[in-house]
C-alpha cells in the first residue's frame, strides 16, 4: 500500500473517531450534531469531502511562505517531513488540531522548545496551521492514485494475510469468509479491496456520515452509527442519533419520526454503537505489511 493511501486512511479514520467522540461528549459546540434550525447552536461547519473542515484559502496562501520560513527547514517541503522533523500531514498534533490552537500549544511546550524555539503570534500559527490542514485534506481526498491492482497483490502474502485475519487483526469478530466477505475477491479488484480495508464506506442514505442530520425514513444502514437511549425506568429506545448533548438527546426512528428527551446528570443514558469502530481502532497499529498481506488474502476469496 502506498504511504499516501495509508496516510489518507489514518486521516479519515481519525475524523470518524473524532465525530463519534464529539457526539458522545455533548455539551456545547462539538457535542451538537444535526440539530437543524436550532437557534442556540453554532452555524454548521463547511466540510470538504464530507470530512474535513474548510479553512479560508487566503489563510492557506499566507500560511505557505510562513511555513517555509519557520517550519520547512525541519519538516520538509509541503509538510511531508525532513531530515530533522517528522511528517506533519500524519502527525497526531496536526490531526487533532483545530484553528491552530493545538499546534500553538504544542509549539510552546517543552518538547518542541527543546528542539526549536519559536515565539510566533497566534495569527501566524493559525495561517501555518491552515496550510498544514490544506495538505492533510489534499492527501486524504486524493487517495489511491494510479496504483495498478497487480502491484498491490505483489506486495502482499495471502497466507500471512489469512493468519492476520484470523488472529492479530481481530477481523473475525465482525467478518466471515463464508458470510459477509464471501466472494469479495471477485467483487472488487485489489486496489479497491485495500481501500475498503482502511477506509470502509458507511454508504448512502441513513448510513452516510453515521446518520447524523436529515435522512429518509427506513431502517439505518448496516454501517450507520446508532444510539440506544435508556430511561430511568429501564425502557430503551434505539435509533439514529440526530442530537446528543449533556442536556438533551434526539433520535430518529425507522418511520422517520423523531423523539427528544431532556437529560440531567447523564440520565437518560445514551450508548453509541459504531460498526466501523474496529477499523478505526486498528489503524492506530496497522502496519503496511499487514495491510498488503490482508489485501492479498481477501483477493483469494472468489
Question: What does this protein structure show overall?
Answer:
- The protein is flat, with a radius of gyration of 21 Å.
- It has two domains: 139 residues, Orthogonal Bundle (Cytochrome Bc1 Complex, Chain D, domain 2), CATH 1.10.760; 73 residues, no CATH class.
- Strand 4 and strand 5 form a beta hairpin.
- The chain is built from 13 helices and seven strands.
- About 14% of the residues have low confidence.
- The protein has 302 residues and is an alpha+beta fold.
- The strands form two sheets. It has a five-stranded antiparallel β-sheet with strand order 6-5-4-3-7. A two-stranded antiparallel ribbon has the order 1-2.
Order of helices and strands: HEEHHHHHHHHHHEEEEEHH
Strand count, sense and closure of the main sheet? 5 strands, antiparallel
Q: Report the top-level CATH class of the largest domain.
A: Mainly Alpha
How far from one another are the termini?
21 Å
What structural class should be given to the helix and strand makeup?
Answer: alpha+beta
- Low-confidence runs of at least 5 consecutive residues: 14-43, 204-215
Please indicate the percent range of residues in DSSP E strands (runs of 2 or more).
5-15%
CATH architecture of the largest domain: Orthogonal Bundle
* Structure annotation, total helices: 13
Calculate Rg over CA atoms: 21 Å
CATH superfamily of the largest domain: Cytochrome c-like domain
Shape: flat
Across the major sheet, the strand order is 6-5-4-3-7
Amino acid at each position: 500500500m502506498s504511504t499516501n493511501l495509508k496516510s489518507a486512511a489514518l486521516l479519515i479514520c481519525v475524523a470518524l473517531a473524532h465525530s463519534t467522540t464529539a457526539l458522545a461528549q455533548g455539551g456545547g459546540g462539538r457535542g451538537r450534531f444535526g440539530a437543524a434550525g436550532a437557534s442556540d447552536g453554532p452555524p454548521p461547519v463547511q466540510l470538504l469531502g464530507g470530512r474535513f473542515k474548510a479553512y479560508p484559502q487566503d489563510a492557506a496562501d499566507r500560511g505557505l511562505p510562513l511555513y517555509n520560513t519557520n517550519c520547512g527547514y525541519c519538516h520538509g517541503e509541503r509538510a511531508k517531513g525532513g531530515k530533522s522533523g517528522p511528517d506533519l500531514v500524519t502527525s497526531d498534533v496536526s490531526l487533532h488540531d483545530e484553528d491552530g490552537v493545538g499546534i500553538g500549544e504544542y509549539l510552546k511546550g517543552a518538547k518542541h522548545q527543546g528542539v526549536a524555539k519559536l515565539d510566533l503570534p497566534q495569527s501566524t500559527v493559525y495561517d501555518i496551521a491552515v496550510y498544514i490542514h490544506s495538505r492533510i485534506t489534499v492527501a486524504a481526498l486524493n487517495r489511491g492514485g494510479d496504483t495498478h491492482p497487480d502491484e498491490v497483490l505483489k506486495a502482499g502474502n495471502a497466507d500471512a494475510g489469512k493468519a492476520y485475519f484470523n488472529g492479530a487483526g481481530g477481523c473475525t469478530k465482525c467478518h466471515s469468509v463464508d458470510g459477509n466477505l464471501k466472494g469479495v475477491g471477485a467483487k472488487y479488484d485489489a486496489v479497491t479491496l485495500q481501500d475498503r480495508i482502511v477506509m470502509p464506506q458507511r454508504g448512502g442514505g441513513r448510513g452516510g456520515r453515521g446518520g447524523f442530520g436529515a435522512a429518509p425514513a427506513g431502517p439505518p444502514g448496516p454501517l450507520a452509527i446508532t444510539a440506544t437511549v435508556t430511561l430511568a425506568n429501564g425502557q430503551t429506545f434505539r435509533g439514529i442519533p440526530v442530537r446528543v448533548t449533556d442536556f438533551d438527546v434526539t433520535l430518529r426512528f425507522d418511520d422517520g419520526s423523531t423523539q427528544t428527551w431532556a437529560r440531567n446528570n447523564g440520565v437518560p443514558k445514551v450508548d453509541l454503537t459504531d460498526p466501523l469502530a474496529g477499523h478505526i481502532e486498528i489503524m492506530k497499529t496497522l502496519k503496511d505489511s499487514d495491510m498488503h498481506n490482508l489485501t492479498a488474502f481477501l483477493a483469494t476469496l472468489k
